[in-house]
């Protein structure tokens, strides 16, 4: 599998700053997306890479959840993600439903160098399948692909699991940016964009560490 830095394909753009690019698509869709996974698998690093194009070698643990937004431009639609990056520590598990409730998409993250985090990811997938929105788009991200020499979870094992559970799947690296944009673009392409409603707006790139507030988002808001 290629480990080159991922880039948007023709007709697809990640718009840093969150706004639609000049001359971009007129239809705007807003979706709530939540990241779930064990502590230290790199959820916050993936979001930081996606939203700001940055990577910090030492990322502080998220407390509660952090909220960020980012915009993806597809060929005919601008997709705005409202991203909830949840804490992975067990003591925050009871808060998770507050963040994935009403979410149209989720990324479940594990560390390819840690088999236990893959098992935990499977538990998150089961919980989402049981308690989240029936039509939620779930992606599985095998993060830290830059540490393939320390791999404990084989690509084929995770890919087979993803296929059996109808999940999007990519191995990612927040450090090198491998597949980071691509996994969000794949989610954006799979989300329904034909439901009517008011397009959302909001501040972009805001990080509210420790925020316990929830934000309701209507499914597939387009205008």
Strands, helices and their partners?
Blueprint: E1 13-15, E2 27-37, H1 43-52, E3 65-73, E4 77-86, H2 96-100, E5 105-111, H3 115-131, E6 137-143, H4 155-164, E7 168-171, H5 180-190, E8 221-222
Parallel strand pairs: 2-4, 2-5, 5-6, 6-7
Antiparallel strand pairs: 1-3, 2-8, 3-4
Task: Give an overview in words.
With 223 residues, the chain is an alpha/beta fold. It is 24% helix and 24% strand. It is built from five helices and eight strands; from the N terminus they run E-E-H-E-E-H-E-H-E-H-E-H-E. It has helices at 43-52, 96-100, 115-131, 155-164, 180-190, and strands at residues 13-15, 27-37, 65-73, 77-86, 105-111, 137-143, 168-171, 221-222. Strands 1, 2, 3, 4, 5, 6, 7 and 8 form an eight-stranded mixed sheet that branches. Helix 4 (155-164) links the parallel strand 6 (137-143) and strand 7 (168-171). The radius of gyration is 16 Å and the shape is globular. Its EC number is 3.6.5.2.
What's the helix-strand series? EEHEEHEHEHEHE
Radius of gyration computed on alpha carbons: 16 Å
Total E-strand runs: 8
- Structure classification: alpha/beta
Mean pLDDT: 79
| C-alpha geometry | globular
What is the assembly state of the chains in this entry? Answer: single chain
Describe the biggest sheet? 8 strands, mixed
Low-confidence stretches: 1-11, 16-25, 196-223
Helix content: 10-25%
Q: Indicate the proportion of strand residues.
A: 15-25%
Number of helices: 5
Distance between the termini: 38 Å
């Amino acid at each position: 599998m290629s480990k080159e830095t991922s880039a948007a394909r023709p007709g697809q753009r990640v718009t840093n700053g969150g706004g639609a690019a000049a001359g971009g698509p007129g239809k705007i869709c807003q979706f709530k997306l939540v990241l779930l996974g064990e502590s230290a698998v790199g959820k916050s690093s993936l979001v930081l890479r996606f939203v700001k194009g940055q990577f910090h070698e030492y990322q502080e643990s998220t407390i509660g959840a952090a909220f960020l937004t980012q915009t993806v431009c597809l060929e005919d639609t601008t997709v705005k993600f409202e991203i909830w990056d949840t804490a992975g520590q067990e003591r925050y598990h009871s808060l998770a439903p507050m963040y994935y409730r009403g979410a149209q998409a989720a990324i479940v993250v594990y560390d390819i160098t840690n088999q236990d985090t893959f098992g935990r990811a499977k538990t998150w997938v089961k919980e989402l399948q049981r308690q989240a929105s029936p039509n939620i788009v779930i992606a599985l991200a095998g993060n830290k692909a830059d540490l393939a020499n320390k791999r404990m979870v084989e690509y084929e094992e995770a890919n087979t699991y993803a296929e059996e559970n109808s999940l999007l799947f990519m191995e990612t690296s927040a450090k090198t940016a491998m597949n980071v944009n691509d996994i969000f673009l794949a989610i954006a392409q799979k989300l329904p964009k034909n439901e009517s409603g008011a397009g959302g707006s909001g501040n972009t790139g805001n990080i509210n560490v420790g925020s316990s507030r929830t934000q309701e988002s209507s499914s597939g808001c387009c205008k």
